[in-house]
Amino acid sequence: MKKPINKLNEKFIELEKKLLKSQRVLLVVHFNPDTDAFSSAFSLDYYLRNELKKETTILSVDPIDKLSAKLFPKKQVRNTYKLANYNTVMILDREDSYYKLKIDEEIIAKNLKIEIINIDHHPKPPIKEALNLVNIDASATCEIIYNFFKQINYQLSPKPAQYLLNGIFTDTGGFRHNNTSAETLEIVSDLMKKGASIRKINQLVFENKSLNTLKLWSIAFSRAELREKTGMVVSFLTKEDLDKCDASKSDASGIAEVLNTISGSKFSLVLYESKPNVIKASLRSDEHKGIDVSAIAKGFGGGGHKLASGFELHGNLKEINKKWVIE
Questions:
Q1: Which of 34, 210, 265, 325 could share a disulfide with 233, CB 3.0–4.6 Å?
Q2: Does domain 211-326 have CATH number 3.40.50.720?
Q3: Which CATH number fits domain 5-205: 3.90.1640.10, 2.30.30.240, 3.40.50.300, 3.40.50.1820?
Q4: Whole-angstrom Cα distance, residue 313 to residue 304?
Q5: What is the pLDDT of residues 18-30, one digit of tens each?
């Protein structure tokens, strides 16, 4: 059962006050941003620009992927920034971009007076110098932002409503994952009343797979192995696989969910080379299988949720003596 969202109400009021005082806001999404991260940024960007008349920048160090490019105006996304230009920095859907970008160190080194806001639904320690708006029971960071807008009586128009729906839809796997609650569906219903469309995001995510994406998936499926002792289904993709299929790393999204449906599986693990010398791992499971994949991810320095987590490894996938290893 979800914790009452009203525990965040005081922080929502504090957040509104801080944003009213700010003039220039930097909205930071995590490395390899997903739809929930971008949806969080663009919904807040719309509110800040149109309602509060603030200057904003959406920051993504990594390029916007194919799916996100269809959902968001990518010309608004920047990959560089000057921290001193901003009064407020908002860290969205976290995954530690705040520390990876060394924002904390730069603030101290340059004695900058900047408000730090952290909005997230992942179970991570709070950022000590930030206003932390964290609800690990929320289905997505967009669900927290929806409740913020509701608390401050901001009337959503169709565009920001669609952004929020996009984030919730994708982070719940189209409402198939266990993080879909009655409250989540009530929020989605309200977003639809405000002009958002499930059909629109469903077509892009599930009904609009390119032939190249399906070719990539077929490679991953052909390599899948079920380890009966552990119940793990594992597969992998190399950079060469992506190049061969003319696919991007975003095309690998969803493979772990499909492999997790294999009979006899307790959880799935998909490894793919996301960039030179970096291997990204995605873990998925289901409530009835009794596996906490976040505990596995934490063992490798990653994190996430009980049923959907990930981590990164340094190295490359190579075939040696007809066996694939990480070097």
A1: 265
A2: no
A3: 3.90.1640.10
A4: 16
A5: 999 999 999 999 9
